[in-house]
Specification:
It is a single chain. By secondary structure, this protein is of the alpha+beta class. 55% of the residues lie in helices and 18% in strands. It folds into 3 domains: 197 residues, PAS domain (Beta-Lactamase, 2-Layer Sandwich), CATH 3.30.450.20; 76 residues, Orthogonal Bundle (Helix Hairpins); 146 residues, Histidine kinase-like ATPase, C-terminal domain (Heat Shock Protein 90, 2-Layer Sandwich). The strands form 4 sheets. Strands 4-3-7-6-5 form a 5-stranded antiparallel β-sheet. A 5-stranded mixed β-sheet has the order 9-11-12-14-13. A two-stranded antiparallel ribbon has the order 1-2. A hairpin with a 5-residue loop joins strand 1 and strand 2.
Length: 453
């Protein structure tokens, strides 16, 4: 018996299987006992009727040879345990070895059958003595009927003699079933325990094919947990590094001002740098919090009809000032495309794509926000004429904190989390992200989303 973390007793697999096997054994034993009793009783009853039939035939032959009647029958059956009855042609009692002045027996089933077929038998409670009795009747050649009867107490005596042997046999079967269940359970459970000791190579030591899907699922879960743990460690390390850089700058400039080392003319410059680093720090914290929120499973996402064209137009208005500062032309194209989603998340997705397109562009370049529909559904696309992404970086740009050009990212205030947020938003909407880029020519990122039917 083992216990849960809240001290609730929990039965082991071996105890559970053994218990069920013992219960099945007990149920089988009781069912067997009932069936044996029924069959034994029926067999003994049939045997008793056959014995009555043989005795009746012997007595009938003796009566017919001797031409005798009641007196001769009384002499033949004296001292016996079997009740003998002799009936005349009208079924009146000529003789009964255990009673006098008895009623007419013409309504007795065994007598009726004997007169119709020559012999007859039945089992019932005797109307004369009130005892459960077996009867056998035979029609004699002179029209009389000879009937013999035996009480069921004789059958019970035989059954009582057999009961001890049956009980001993059943107890033996029970002990054998318990021992066999314990042995079999150990043999079944031991390979599973052995499999549990080697979790690093679980699928290579599966003892039963029924456990293979479970082993595969468990190995996948363990692999996912390891990958998740590794991602969390990398994420923590990256966050610590990214936070350390602006905080170090802020602390350094503040210390220069605090100690009076900075000249009066330098103070506005240092204050501007502190404000820039603080803004970068706030942006980084905002993106980290957003990613953490997107990582949490959304129990009931508030989805509603959203027009992607309206999302791009709102984004263009919000990013117009940034585009002018970077000397980048910003425009919108495409048609109205309705999808079901979160307006806030889709706005954030478009803002991150547009911000990246402006940030990694060149003066005089352009950014186009485009909507449309293709073979994979509705799409929102951002295309720029910026610096582009080399092929070896294209598979990793959606990873957290991954930067193609770290010096340019830090110079422009990038956190390395924008495209990771884009990918999460797309996945939460059941969509996907497609990237096409050529170094020195620009980048096009298309987000496919399921359209409204």
């Amino acid at each position: 018996m083992i216990r849960k973390h809240d001290d609730t007793p929990v039965r082991s697999m071996e105890e559970t299987i053994s218990g069920w096997m013992v219960l099945i054994g007990l149920a089988s034993m009781l069912l067997t006992a009932v069936l044996v009793s029924v069959m034994f009783t029926r067999t003994l009853g049939d045997q008793l009727v056959q014995d009555l039939g043989r005795q009746t035939q012997v007595l009938a032959a003796a009566l017919e040879l001797s031409g005798g009647g009641a007196a001769e029958l009384a002499e033949m059956t004296a001292g016996g345990d079997v009740r003998a009855t002799l009936l005349d042609e009208q079924d009146n009692v000529l003789y009964d070895s255990q009673g006098d002045d008895l009623d007419n027996h013409g309504d007795r089933p065994e007598v009726i059958q004997a007169r119709a077929e020559g012999t007859g038998s039945s089992r019932r409670t005797s109307s004369t003595f009130g005892v459960n009795t077996y009867y056998y009747a035979m029609l004699l050649e002179d029209g009389r009927v000879l009937r013999l009867a035996a009480e069921s107490s004789e059958l019970h005596a035989l059954y009582d003699q057999a009961v001890p042997a049956i009980a001993l046999a059943l107890i033996g079967v029970l002990f054998f079933a318990v021992a066999a269940s314990l042995l079999l359970t150990r043999r079944l459970v031991r390979p599973i325990e052995q499999m549990g000791r080697d979790l690093d190579d679980l699928t290579a030591h599966v003892p039963y094919r029924e456990l293979k899907p479970f082993a595969r699922a468990l190995e996948q879960d363990r692999r996912a947990l390891r990958e998740g743990e590794q991602m969390r460690q990398e994420f923590t390390a990256n966050v610590s590094h990214e936070l350390k850089t602006p905080l170090t700058s802020i602390s350094g400039y503040a210390e220069l001002i605090e100690n009076g080392i900075a000249q009066s003319a330098d103070i506005p410059v240092f204050a501007g740098r502190i404000r820039t680093e603080a803004g970068r720090l706030l942006t980084l914290i905002r993106d980290i919090l957003e990613l953490s929120r997107l990582d949490q499973p959304m129990a009931d996402p508030q989805f509603e009809p959203v027009d992607l064209q309206q999302v791009t137009q709102n984004c263009a208005k919000a990013q117009a000032l940034n585009a002018r500062k970077a000397y980048v032309t910003l425009s919108c194209e495409g048609s109205s495309q309705m999808v079901r989603g979160s307006r806030q998340l889709l706005d954030e997705l478009c803002q991150n794509l547009c911000d990246n397109a402006i940030r990694y562009n060149r003066p005089g370049g352009s950014v186009v926000l485009r909507t449309g529909r293709g073979d994979r559904g509705a799409y929102l696309e951002v295309e720029d004429t910026g610096i582009g992404i080399a092929p070896e970086h294209q598979l990793r740009v959606f990873e957290r904190f991954y930067r193609v050009d770290k010096s340019r990212s830090k110079a422009t205030g990038g956190t390395g989390l924008g495209l990771a947020i884009v990918k999460h938003c797309a996945l939460l909407h059941g969509g996907s992200v497609e990237l096409h880029s050529h170094p020195g020519q620009g980048t096009r990122i298309r987000v496919w989303l399921p359209p409204m039917v």
